[in-house]
Amino acid sequence: MIELRNLSKLFTTVDGPVDALKHINLTVQDGDIYGIIGMSGAGKSTLVRCINMLEKPTEGSVLLDGKDMGTLTEKELRAMRRKITMIFQGFNLLMQRTCLKNVMLPMKLGGMDRARAEKRARELLELVGLPDKANSYPAQLSGGQQQRVAIARALATEPQVLLCDEATSALDPKTTHAILELIRDINEKLGITVIVITHQMSVVQEVCNRVAILENGVVVEEGEVSEVFSNPRADATRNLIYPELSEGVNIFREGGQRVRVIFNGAMASREPLIAKMAVECRILASIVGASTRSVGDRAYGYMLLDIPGTPEDLARAVSYLSKMPDITVQVEAEYAAKEGQA
Fold first, then answer.
1. Judging by beta carbons within 10 Å of its beta carbon (0-12, 13-18, 19+), is residue 47 exposed, middle or buried?
2. Among 152, 154, 186, which residue's Cα sits nearest to residue 84?
3. Measured between alpha carbons, how far is residue 257 from residues 83, 241, 306, 310, 336 in Å?
4. Suppose 104 and one of 81, 117, 217, 332 were both cysteines; which one would form an S-S bond, judging by CB atoms 3.0 to 4.6 Å apart?
5. How confident is the model over 120-176, as pLDDT tens digits?
6. pLDDT grade, residue 250 (50/70/90)?
7. pTM for this predicted structure
């Protein structure tokens, strides 16, 4: 288990002090795939470097299984870092070494004999799906293959925790999906706790079970991914999940009535919800914005609707939609009023 207690980090710059992290309190349970997400400058990279003590916190503590890493000697800290390994956006492979030798390196540095290190490295390349690339050099591999080698190397010391710092940001969507599937598979097979640092909500949604939202060095929201995704409370969370809303939706007719329909894990279905409401309630609705995603057979996301007619029509629409399982309906009265005054 990893605990961050009142963690703060202050940098001194030529322009004055910068509070990169402010009183962070988080708990990552064993076996979690825990997402930490935020926009550029939110403090994500500083936070991950504090977790393995590459950056010493200005205040607070980082505990691994109850042991305060800030109290360790340099020797003890080096040993602890073998339990907390990292993969990066840039892969960080040694280009002059083969894939096999890249994976062997941490084991050799740890004093393991060559034969054992090579056997283990081949097993790890098998685990990440690259047994035939042992004698290839990184320059001969695709980006996704290089990241797989980097994952194998990170697993060489048999860590308890794998830190993924924007590990898929340089990859295309198909390769990103494959790497995330590999990370999930490793988490399940080896029981390794994974912390995913990213600016992409889609990455968190696909692989994480819990998430913390960082903004300006502060955790503004934290919880189960499904709950945070379906019912975001903080503005920063809403902007990450529904980026189009942060740009403003200015296509409502004057006097329009805005309704947000949120799918909180509703069963994915081909049934046309809005068309069905039109037939059964004789209420027409314009879909002016939507962002939905499927997780398994469940739907998460939202639709923005413009409901014409009277307040009574709006009330009937809200009543009808609210009866649907795992759906939340929010009336954006303030927004509608502003649009009506435009």
1. buried
2. 154
3. 54, 23, 6, 9, 5
4. 117
5. 999 999 999 999 999 999 999 999 999 999 999 999 999 999 999 998 988 898 999
6. very low
7. 0.77
Spell out the SS3 assignment of the chain: CEEEEEEEEEEEECCEEEEEEEEEEEEECCCCEEEEECCCCCCHHHHHHHHCCCCCCCEEEEEECCEEHHHCCHHHHHHHHCCEEEEECCCCCCCCCCHHHHHHHHHHHCCCCHHHHHHHHHHHHHHCCCHHHCCCCHHHCCHHHHHHHHHHHHCCCCCCEEEEECCCCCCCHHHHHHHHHHHHHHHHHHCCEEEEEECCHHHHHHHCCEEEEEECCEEEEEEEHHHHHHCCCCHHHHHHHCHHHHCCCCCCCCCCCEEEEEEEEEECCCCCHHHHHHHHHCCCCEEEEEEEEEECCEEEEEEEEECCCCHHHHHHHHHHHHCCCCEEEEECHHHHHHHHHC
Cα separation, 262 vs 132, whole angstroms: 46
List pLDDT tens digits, range 301-325. 777 888 888 888 888 888 888 888 8
Do 242 and 310 meet the contact criterion of CB atoms below 8 Å apart? no
Could you identify the residue written with the tokens 């076996």?
Answer: 31
Number of Cβ atoms within 10 Å of the Cβ of 106: 19
CA 50 to mean position of chain CA atoms: 18
Q: Which residue has the tokens 């994915």?
A: 268
Question: How many other C-beta atoms can be found within 10 angstroms of the C-beta atom of residue 298?
Answer: 16
Q: Which residue has the tokens 């062997």?
A: 104
| C-alpha to C-alpha distance for 116 and 274, rounded to whole angstroms | 62
Q: Sign (positive/negative) of CA torsion 128, 133, 138, 143?
A: negative
